[in-house]
Amino acid sequence: MNRRYFLKSGSIALASIGMSLSAPAFLERAVMGQPVGGKRKTLIAIFQRGAVDGLNMVVPFGESTYYDLRPSIAIPKPESGNTDAAINLDGFFGLHPAMSSFKPLWDSKRLAIIHASGSPDNTRSHFDAQDYMESATPGVKSTSDGWLNRYLQSKQDPDRSLFRAVSMTRTMPRVLQGRASAVAMANLSDFAIRAGRSSANIQGGFEAIYAKEVNDKLAGMGRETFEAVNYLKKANPAQYKPENGAQYPRNPFGNSLLQIAQLIKAGVGLEVAFTDIGGWDTHVNQGNARGQLANLLQQFNSGVAALYQDLGQRMDDVVVLTMSEFGRTVRENGNRGTDHGHANAMFVMGNNVRGGKVYGRWPGLKSDQLYEGRDLALTTDFRDVFGEVATRHLGATKSIFPGYSLTQSNFKGFLG
Fold it and tell me: What is the pTM (predicted TM-score) of this model?
């Protein structure tokens, strides 16, 4: 077992143990209020797994065809006093009424939307589409790493923070798999080390492994990791108090965002954070302004809004990026739901985002404008969105999209 295997395969869920060991050097600086490497940019990526209905999330109420094709599930046009109506953004697009907390971000130009975006691959398989989006190689299943891991590989971290890349998920997501070190943790309050069949041995004798010093690299890595876990627990996640009156929803999604905020504030060198929220596969009884989709959007809305409020001025250095594997059919089905579609909508949020605008060319919803006669057509490749975030926010200077010629002329301009 070596350092790379331990961090890649043996992901860590941080937890409740005592401070019998001193913190490693990079965490000592954090204790003294000196963030690792000074001020650094952070990306928070959120995956809406299951294919959210982008047409009811960001509603094209200015197009009459939308209402013709969705007699049961369409969101009403904005009307004064109608709480079930779309929230008007620009006279053509509106937000689902369950997403009211996004409107102030839009008004203050800190929220940008990229509509009709997604994968150029035509698969309607959740598994394949998620794989293609996380690897950022549409149509290619053999890619060994995720696009965020390739970004980490492309840019050295002089501080070698153990917490440079963190996924608040039980397993390492495809997007962070690869040669660069990354950590997956289900919860800051639970300690577990997962390394396949080696888990029991590691869990039972972790200190003994590095104390023997049979392998110097493993010894150093084990000690540093164990001490880092101890330091983070010293902060006592259960006692964390969000700032600025932020109230996270009490569900797994809200809890993951709360802990991402905590890691950012701890100054442990977090550069890339990932989490997800599922349940968006609304084939039956999707609902309109109320119902199944509305309930999910409310969770999504309240979680992201709390994160933004909690981080406050720190959002100067943070960008939140949302994605979903594909959209839904334009026409509702016979079960008052929607089926697997094509293009979708993405959100980009941050204090330095050029928001208050829906980016990308709108293709229209008439029959001859639809993809394969049924879906919203794609006009923005998701790699152009990922690339703009990686380049203009994180500072990537090398290509991280195999087989794709990414040029800044493809960027939409939502980041300066």
Answer: 0.86
